[in-house]
Amino acid sequence: MNKKIRTEAVDHLFQAILALESIEECYSFFEDVCTVNELLSFSQRYEVAKMLREKKTYLEIAEKTGASTATISRVNRSLNYGSDGYDMIFARLNAGKEEKEK
């Protein structure tokens, strides 16, 4: 974890996020905390990461998400050299999907 962002205030924010119990609660909280553009940027980066993991090309990703190649490249760098946060979430979501299918 980047020591520059590990602060008491960030801990409080993450604790608040962990207290959310539904998608509707997430909408309410994030609409209050983020601007519309910030929230759309977060969701765009997440979609880019999913598509990169699906081996989509930069062109396919840019066309589908509207992300710039610079954004796609930054997300790709995070996937390859980051803190493995995307991979952790993808694994958990896939495990949850597999459980539901049983």
Describe the structure.
There is one protein chain. This protein is an all-alpha fold and 102 residues long. It contains 6 helices and no strands. Helix 3 runs antiparallel to helix 4 and helix 3 packs across helix 5. The model has no long low-confidence stretch (mean pLDDT 94).
Short key terms for the protein model shown above:
mainly alpha, single chain, 102 residues, globular, 0% strand
Instruction: Work out the strand percent.
Output: under 5%
Question: How many distinct helices?
Answer: 6
Structural class, from helix and strand content? mainly alpha
Percent range of helical residues: over 70%
Topology:
Blueprint lengths: L7 H11 L4 H11 L2 H18 L4 H8 L3 H13 L3 H17 L1
Helix pairs in contact: 3-4, 3-5
